[in-house]
Structure formats: structure tokens, C-alpha cells
């Protein structure tokens, strides 16, 4: 997975994830760095790579996959 280059605060991930109707908001604090930024410049330049999904779409896709996994296998 390559980052699209968007600036994203680490605290935005649980907000985006909990915006899904099937996900309960996170009650425990996020522990880790306050700021992360990936750089996809090399992939853009050398491979002519462009992101196909936004960060929000990626988070929603991951949450949906986890929800589906838990529906099919609650002990996963």
C-alpha cells in the first residue's frame, strides 16, 4: 500500500472508521505518534503511479472487510 500523500492526523482514523453505522466509536485513546505522513513521490516518478482511492475510502473498505469477517467468523 502506498500513501496518497495526503496530510492525515493519526486521530482521524478512528473518527473515519466509527462513521460507519456498524462500528461503535472507539472508547480507548489512540496511542502512538501524533502525526504520520507517507511520501509516494518515488512511486509517482519512477512508476507513474497514481492513487485510485482516497484515505477515507481505504479506511471504509478495511472496516467493511473486518465487519464481514466478524459476521462470518465471530471468533476471528
Question: Can you describe this structure?
Answer:
The protein contains three helices and two strands. With 76 residues, it is mainly α. It has one domain (8-72). It has a two-stranded antiparallel sheet with strand order 1-2. Residues 31-62 form the NAD(P)-binding domain.
Provide a quick synopsis of the model.
It holds the Pfam family GDP_Man_Dehyd. With 76 residues, this protein is mainly alpha-helical.
Helix content: 40-55%
Structural class computed from helices and strand pairing: mainly alpha
Report on the biggest sheet.
2 strands, antiparallel
Number of helices: 3
Spans of 5+ residues with little confidence (pLDDT < 50)? none
Radius of gyration: 15 Å
- Report the principal-axis shape: extended
In the sheet with the most strands, the strands line up as 1-2
**Strand count:** 2
Q: Notable features of this structure?
A:
mainly alpha; 3 helices; single chain; 76 residues; two-stranded antiparallel sheet
Task: Give the topology.
Elements: E1 8-9, H1 12-18, E2 35-36, H2 41-47, H3 55-72
Antiparallel strand pairs: 1-2
